[in-house]
């Protein structure tokens, strides 16, 4: 169907919650949202798709994800990226940034050249562009990145990465305190790449200097960065105290304590909070062995841990679970929509996505009362496989 009514649903926009609503879908676009009992006469006759009273939210957008369902960029195969796209769509994600681990610059360059043919060929979640998590990060805050792969700032190396990706770099995570990093920040800004501070040991002043040069966003706030203390606010404090700096948050309740996420919600403008999964490749994978970034991992305590030493290797979060979690942590439903979709769309320049409004692309997820995805629409097309009624 190219034109239909999705009803009844509880439509959740970034501003409001509209119970017993009908979404008018026409040609893959949302043509209007109405109370069921206030449908205009000219569309009341349209075919109806039963929304079963579910919550209707914009398709989730994940700006930081390493893999899903056993597929990811680390496999160096464009088909694996397309498989990841298809699997993510089944979980309610309609757009994402496949995120590359820190590696030697020439290795990241080779990987990008292998992956870029997938861009534009996805039939599932849209690939916004690559997120490069490194290689210009701090050796003092590697997280689970391999220390031998961390590199000093190098503009020609970054330009080669940009060329290898054929311009399809959406974001880069770097440490703003590194000597010589300013030209990299300026180049990225000039080419529409979101510059994110992460894996950084920056002092408060070093962070602010990076922000003056073009750092606008923070990668997984509080994780792998200089902490907030009363005498040295660090990178985390700078992100907290400067409302114009947007930030990712891994909303699994393990990487960041739930009460800290609630605190962030109370001090940071909601439009600058972006929930991400930072999920590893085996997230959603049914059978092992579970491998992430070349190392075997086990699921323990709600996260993936390296089997060798039980160090947290990354998240097993989904965006649907992130939505539920932030609601549990005190976000309203409209605020949860902002954190899981609308804000990411705005930051990525996706002007027609992340909204349940007239003129927006009809990327819609239906969530049941437990906030589990039960149906997804991509460009107004109903995706059926993998969902239950």
Write the topology of this structure.
Blueprint: E1 3-12, E2 17-26, E3 29-35, E4 48-58, E5 60-65, H1 78-90, E6 93-100, H2 105-115, E7 126-127, E8 130-133, H3 155-164, E9 169-174, H4 182-190, E10 194-197, H5 204-213, E11 217-218, H6 234-241, E12 246-250, H7 258-267, E13 273-276, E14 291-292, E15 295-300, E16 303-306, E17 312-315, H8 319-328, H9 333-347, E18 364-367, E19 373-378, E20 381-383
Parallel strand pairs: 1-4, 5-6, 6-7, 6-8, 8-9, 9-10, 10-11, 11-12, 12-13
Antiparallel strand pairs: 1-2, 2-3, 4-18, 14-15, 15-16, 16-17, 18-19, 19-20
Please tell me about this protein's structure.
By secondary structure, the chain is α/β, with parallel strands linked by helices. It folds into two domains: 3-58 and 354-383, Urease, subunit C, domain 1 (Roll); 60-347, TIM Barrel, CATH 3.20.20. Helices cover 25% and strands 28% of the residues. It has nine helices and 20 strands. Strands 5, 6, 7, 8, 9, 10, 11, 12 and 13 form a nine-stranded parallel beta sheet that branches. α2 (105-115) runs parallel beside α3 (155-164). The longest helix is centred in the last third of the chain and has 15 residues, at 333-347. The chain is globular, with a radius of gyration of 21 Å. It starts with a strand and ends in a 6-residue tail after the last strand. The model has no long low-confidence stretch (mean pLDDT 96).
């Amino acid at each position: 169907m190219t034109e239909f009514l999705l009803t009844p649903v509880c439509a959740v926009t970034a501003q409001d919650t509209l119970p017993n609503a009908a979404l008018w879908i026409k040609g893959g676009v949302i043509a209007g949202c109405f109370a069921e009992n206030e449908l205009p006469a000219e569309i009341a006759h349209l075919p109806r798709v039963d929304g079963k009273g579910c919550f209707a939210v914009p398709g989730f957008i994940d700006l930081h994800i390493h893999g899903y369902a056993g597929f990811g960029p680390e496999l160096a195969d464009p088909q694996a990226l397309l498989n990841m796209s298809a699997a993510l769509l089944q979980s309610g994600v309609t757009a994402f940034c496949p995120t590359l681990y820190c590696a030697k610059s020439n290795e990241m360059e080779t990987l990008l050249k292998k992956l870029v043919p997938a861009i534009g060929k996805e039939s599932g979640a849209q690939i916004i562009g690559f997120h490069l998590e490194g290689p210009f990060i701090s050796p003092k805050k590697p997280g689970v990145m391999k220390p031998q792969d961390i590199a000093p700032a190098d503009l020609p190396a970054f330009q080669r990465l940009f060329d290898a990706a054929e311009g399809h770099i959406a974001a880069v995570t770097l440490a703003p305190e590194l000597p010589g990093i300013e030209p990299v920040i300026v180049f990225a800004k000039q080419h529409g790449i979101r510059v994110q501070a992460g894996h950084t040991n920056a002092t408060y002043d070093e962070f602010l200097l990076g922000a003056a040069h073009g750092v606008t966003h923070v990668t997984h706030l509080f994780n792998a960065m200089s902490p907030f203390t009363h005498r040295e606010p660090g990178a985390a404090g700078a992100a907290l105290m400067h409302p114009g700096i947007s930030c990712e948050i891994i909303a699994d309740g393990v990487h960041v304590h739930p009460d800290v996420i609630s605190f962030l919600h109370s001090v940071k403008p909601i439009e600058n909070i972006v929930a991400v999964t930072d999920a590893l490749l085996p997230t959603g994978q049914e059978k092992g062995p579970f491998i992430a970034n070349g190392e075997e991992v086990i699921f323990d305590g709600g996260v993936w841990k390296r089997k060798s030493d039980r160090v947290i290797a990354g998240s097993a979060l989904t965006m649907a679970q992130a939505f539920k979690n932030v609601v549990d942590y005190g976000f309203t439903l409209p605020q949860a929509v902002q954190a899981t979709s609308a804000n990411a769309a705005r930051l990525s320049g996706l002007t027609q996505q992340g909204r349940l409004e007239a003129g927006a692309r009809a990327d819609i997820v239906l969530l049941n009362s437990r906030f589990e995805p039960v149906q997804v629409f991509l460009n107004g097309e109903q995706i059926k496989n993998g969902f239950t009624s």
